[in-house]
Amino acid sequence: MLEELGVPRARVKVLRFFAGGEIEVGVRELARALKMNAGNVQRELAKLTSLGYLVKKSQSGGVVYSKSKRLDDLCKMVAI
Fold it and tell me: Based on the number of CB atoms within 10 Å of its own CB, is 29 exposed (0-12), middle (13-18) or buried (19 or more)?
C-alpha cells in the first residue's frame, strides 16, 4: 500500500520492521536484518526520526532506534 503512494521502498522496509513489535536496534544490525546498505538505512532512520515515527536513543553501546507512539498509532490505523 505505501509503495503505491510513492513511499520509497527502503523506507517501507524500515517501517515494516519497526511495526512488527517493540524493538530497539542500531543501524548496522538493522541493515543486516533488512539486507540493505548501512548508508541507506541511516538516511531512512534519520528521515523517519525527523518525521516523528522513530525515536533515537543514546546507549552505552551506541545509538539505537525504536518506534514512537506516532508510528504505533499509524500501525493501528493502516496495515504497513
Answer: middle
Compute the distance between CA of residue 74 and CA of residue 40 in angstroms, rounded to an integer: 23
What one-letter code names the amino acid at 68?
S
What pTM does this model have? 0.88
Grid coordinates standing for 58?
543514546
pLDDT digits (tens, 9 = 90+) for 25-69: 999 999 999 999 999 999 999 999 999 999 999 988 899 999 999
Domains assigned to the chain: 3-72 (1.10.10.10)
